[in-house]
Amino acid sequence: MIPSAPHDRDILAGEYVLGLLDGETTREVERALDSDPDLRRRVEAWEVRLQPLSEGLPSGAADPALWERIERDLTVMRYRRGRATGSPGRLTARAWRSPAFWRATTALASAAALLLAILPVPVGPRDDSPTRFYALMQTRDAAGAETGPGWLIQVAADGTVRSVPLATVEPGQGRSLQLWTLWDPARGPVSLGILPPGGSVRLPPDRLATIGSGQLFEITLEPEAGSPTGRPTGRILFIGRASAPPTQAL
Amino acid sequence: MGAFDHAAELEACARRDPAALRRLYERDGGFLMAVALRIVRRREVAADIVHDAFLDIWERAGRFDRDRGAARAWMTSIVRYRALKHLRQTGRERVFDPEEHGRDPDDAPDPLAALETVQDAVRLRECLARLEPERRRAIGLAYTDGLTHAEIAGRVGAPLGTVKAWIRRSLLALKECLS
User: Fold this and answer.
1) In the predicted model, what is the mean pLDDT of residues A69-89?
2) Looking at CA atoms only, how far is residue A193 from chain B in angstroms?
3) Alpha carbon distance B90, B117 (integer Å)
4) In 3-state terms, what secondary structure has residue B153?
């Protein structure tokens, strides 16, 4: 129980900030902080009073590699937020909420070939060009775990690569999403270009000829102008393999 | 150093500007890493805590109120509570490791010594100086090292009830002295 006497409340707040309360009391204080502005003020006062004790710790420069991780996960988090709230008026967001889309997506997990028959594919440059391959890319979290479909890539016979984010993705200021494919493990990932949000990129014919079923596609977070090295420098945000559509019409 | 406005950067985070979070990280990421590392003692765990804390800072920036609190203390608290939570959930393997302490004799210096190099700590220093040294040390072991009452009792060689009473009295004395 949270005490009412000011001294007792100050002691409780101080012990909370010092981390000395048992688990149950800690949770009780945490719950009370939302509804008890007086207790919150007392806790905040201790946080400020004791802060100089932290300042005495020897510290070095911030680790740039850790920032990379934070930034990538921030992107994924914002992407998920966009997915959760939807973005009215965006075709992809509407598609996301559509039961037909979900049925299609679920079916894709086992039978990817059904995709183009069901999914309302957003406008691309040449909707009539037959599909050679597509890849349903899985979202990857920082730990490398796949957390569900996040991006759809369709490669048309005319070389157009349609890129369909399954929700709003914000790479962040000064950042881009870059699409790669791995057609030759000895050579490593080859860039297919920077992805405009919900837009398309067109492949040169020689690249198109290299795409085969089962080929790996990935999207990484890169500087705005794309990877400066010609190889992925950021973490993989989305990954998936190409599948060929059914040879006969459904 | 006064040119960096933590509160303004947090407000920019609340407006969803990722560049502001990056500036906060570049400014304070190393410091917050040290805060977490001192509590959890393992670099990879501390890195995870700072990582999660920065995502928290981004999420909660809208609730930061510059009239109510100091921005750097607000960020430090997010890291400390996460580190403490980790410790309490996983248990502490290292603090009682005698080998570790053999290598690290200056593990828990008197907080007064630690505060010597800190600017703007004059008042806290003066008020801590009025406490008995072992009580001062108990506050430091709790705040910077994340030790529990029982762990502090073990470290300073005092009964648990005594340590609890020290902390309570020290908190009241500090509050009075600082206000």
Assistant:
1) 64
2) 24
3) 33
4) helix
A3 touches chain B (CB under 8 A): no
Residue A250 in contact with partner chain B when CB distance is under 8 A: no
Nearest chain A CA: its distance from B149 CA (Å): 6
pLDDT band at A119 (very low <50, low <70, confident <90, very high): very low
Q: What is the mean pLDDT of residues B11-38?
A: 94
The gap between the terminal CA atoms of chain A, to the nearest Å, is 66
Query: pTM of this prediction?
Result: 0.61
Domain spans of chain A?
Answer: 6-55, 64-241
Measured CA to CA, the distance from residue A56 to residue B35 in angstroms comes to: 10
Phi, psi at B93, each rounded to 5° = -90, -25
Single-letter residue type at A147: T
For the record, the structure tokens of A17 come out as 């900030």
Asked if this assembly's ipTM is beyond 0.85, the reply is yes
Rounded to whole angstroms, what are the CA distances from A140 to A198, B3, B57, B85? 19, 38, 22, 26
- The domains of chain B, with CATH numbers, are 1-91 (1.10.1740.10), 106-179 (1.10.10.10)
CB A126 within 8 A of CB A160: yes
- Residue among A17, A54, A63 whose CB faces B29 most closely: A63
**Most confidently modeled range among A52-61, A135-144, B17-26:** B17-26
Per the CB < 8 A criterion, the answer to whether B177 and B127 are in contact is yes
From the list B27, B54, B72, the residue facing A70 with the nearest CB is B54
User: What's the angle, vertex CA A108, arms to CA A106 and CA A111, rounded to 5?
Assistant: 125
**Sequence-ordered alpha helix ranges (H) in chain B:** 6-14, 18-40, 43-60, 71-90, 98-103, 111-115, 122-129, 133-143, 149-156, 160-178
C-alpha distances out from residue A229 to A58, A92, A180, A182, A232, Å: 36, 32, 13, 16, 8
Nearest CA to B78 out of A67, A108, A47, A146 is that of A47
In this structure, how many other beta carbons lie within 10 angstroms of the beta carbon of residue A145?
Answer: 9
Spatial separation of the C-alpha atoms in residues B164 and A241, rounded to whole Å: 60
Give the pLDDT confidence score for residue A97 in this predicted structure: 41
User: Which positions 114-173 of B are in contact with A (Cβ < 8 Å)?
Assistant: 114-118, 120-121, 124-125, 139-140, 142-144, 146, 148-149, 167-168, 171-172
| Average confidence (pLDDT) over B116-132 | 85
The whole-angstrom separation of Cα A109 and Cα A101 is 13
